[in-house]
Recover the amino acids of this structure.
């Protein structure tokens, strides 16, 4: 398993890297899990932040392509992600 610094090398967008570093720097007591998926032309970056001291868990989602510098970002509480997953299962979507 790659550590976070090695995984960050997979991200070609400097703006996304900077955003992630800002999240991580702002919460030094959090534990982070990280995953990058490429589905050309898009790159998806998933960052789970778990902070047991402050009692929260967040799911950060980034998406960008190789065309420009723009990227999208969304952040959800992990509990909300579970609800979204349940809703998707109920609709029988793949």
């Amino acid at each position: 398993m790659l550590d976070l610094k090695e995984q960050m090398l997979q991200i070609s967008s400097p703006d996304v890297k900077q955003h992630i570093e800002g999240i991580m720097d702002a919460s030094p007591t959090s534990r982070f899990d990280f995953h990058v998926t490429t589905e050309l032309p898009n790159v998806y970056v998933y960052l789970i932040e778990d902070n047991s001291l402050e009692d929260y868990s967040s799911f950060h989602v980034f998406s960008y392509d190789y065309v420009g510098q723009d990227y999208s970002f969304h952040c959800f509480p992990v509990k909300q992600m579970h609800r979204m997953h349940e809703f998707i299962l109920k609709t029988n979507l793949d």
